[in-house]
Amino acid sequence: MSERSPLWFDRKNHAYWVDGVRLPGVTRVIAHAGVSTDYSMIDTGTMDGARNRGNIVHEIIHKHHAEGTTLRAHTHKQADGCLRAYEKFLAETSYRVEWTERQLYSTLFWYAGTIDNRGWLFGERTILDVKTSHDVNQPAVELQTASYAWLNDENYPEEKHERRVCLHLMKTGRYRLLRCDDPMALDKFVEALKSMQEELQ
């Protein structure tokens, strides 16, 4: 595979750039597809708290696998239940992480995203998307994991995924594994991506 140009992520504006060109992010494409959850009726404080919890959980999980830090070394009230759920998930499934929080882009479809987690689950290489929300929007997660799976397979053709899974971590310390197996999910994502790109031209 030929060497790719470096991908730059502007964290403040949540924007991906390659060679001075902004690439659509997965979240923006899913919103354009019209399957994102409508949070307009939820107050700002609740939304900020949920977003903060998600960011903390993702950051701690990443540091745990990348740096070997303890999952609950610094107990955080907002995140503690979700982290207990993640500990339980690891213990009960023997999930083996390969890497976390990897930013990739597609030269074929020209979009970018950050994959939460890739590893071995029940003997299969799995693209794992971690959710800490109250509930999971299955149609949105189908598109999200399909887009991540494509990014993985395009960038690592010898390490292709075998399954897509959403790991729902709950504040109660429980977790759910939701298999994402819509065979048309990638087609739906690409259709929304092309529609968005046409509108931006």
How many domains comprise the coordinates?
A: 1
* Helix proportion range: 25-40%
β-strand amount: 25-35%
Helices, by number, come to 5
Unreliable stretches: none
Order of helices and strands: EEEHHHEEEHEEH
| Average pLDDT reading | 91
Q: CATH architecture, please?
A: 3-Layer(aba) Sandwich
Radius of gyration: 17 Å
What is the 3D shape?
Answer: globular
- Any idea of the CATH class? Alpha Beta
Strand order of the largest sheet: 4-5-6-7-8
Structural class, from secondary structure content?
A: alpha+beta
- N-to-C span: 30 Å
Number of strands: 8
Can you give a write-up of this model?
The protein has helices at about 25-35, 45-65, 80-95, 140-155, 185-200, and strands at about 5-10, 15-20, 20-25, 95-105, 110-120, 125-130, 165-170, 175-180. The protein is of the alpha+beta class and about 200 residues long. The protein has one domain: Trna Endonuclease, Chain: A, domain 1, CATH 3.40.1350.10. The chain has a 5-stranded mixed sheet with strand order 4-5-6-7-8, with helices on both faces. A 3-stranded antiparallel sheet has the order 1-2-3, with no helix packed on it. Strand 6 (about 125-130), helix 4 and strand 7 (about 165-170) form a beta-alpha-beta unit. The model has no long low-confidence stretch (mean pLDDT about 90).
